[in-house]
Amino acid sequence: MDKKSAVKIIIECAKMYKDNFLGKNLMIIYGKDQYGFMEAVFPKTAYLHLTGVDTKLSPSAFYSKCIGNVLSNKDFNFKSNGTTELKLQILPHVFNPKKNYKIVGEYGNFKQILRTNKLVGGVHACLGFVKDGDYYVPNTTLNDDIREITSWNSRIVLILEKGLNDAQYNEITYVAKNVDAVGIIKTVKSDKIKIDT
Q1: For residue 115, what are the contacts with CB-CB under 8 A and spacing of at least 6?
Q2: Could you tell me if 159 and 172 are in contact, meaning their C-beta atoms sit under 8 angstroms apart?
Q3: pTM here?
Q4: How far apart are CA 19 and CA 15, in angstroms?
Q5: Helix or strand or coil: residue 132?
Q6: Sign of the C-alpha dihedral, residues 87, 143, 172, 25?
Q7: What letters, b where the CB count within 10 A reaches 16 and e where it falls short, cover 79-114?
Q8: What is the DSSP letter of 128?
Q9: pLDDT in tens, 102-137
Q10: What's the CA gap between 61 and 63, in Å, rounded?
Q11: Residue 143 and residue 86 in contact, taking contact as beta carbons nearer than 8 Å
Q12: Which of 77, 86, 146, 180, by CA, is between 20 and 30 Å from 170?
């Protein structure tokens, strides 16, 4: 991959990150007979690390350049270990939750240098999250089959969305095939969910 291709991917994916995540919380509900959930928040400052590039720009300045469509190939370098190219190949997948979030799992510490808690994604790519207060924050992208690097995993059945300043989730943005969304929401019994059923 050359720098010109990388710039294009990074800018396009920054816009996907903005459209799908910024200013929002996601509640990812998973399970089969019993259901659990995780809540995620996506700060602007997380974007830089997810791309895998090296830069002297601050995370905020890097993201601003991406959104402003003024990122230059002189603003960053690929990491020498080859991870940048791997991350850039999968960014469009991990920033499209409605299409590509099928499985959630607990990271199984299969890679010694990687520190993350939960993984969300599918068989081709996943996004890693670390716990920060009540929410999970993305901290890595992995070009791996989620099933092979989790100590346990489960099917995602629903994804709910709310604005950062909203007290309750009020929109369903993803429903897995053959699931009863209303029944699952009632089973979860969270006071953070307010969806007309």
Answers
A1: 130, 139
A2: yes
A3: 0.92
A4: 6
A5: strand
A6: negative
A7: eeeebbebbbebbebbbebeebbbbbbebeeeeeee
A8: E
A9: 999 999 876 666 788 999 999 999 999 999 999 999
A10: 5
A11: yes
A12: 146
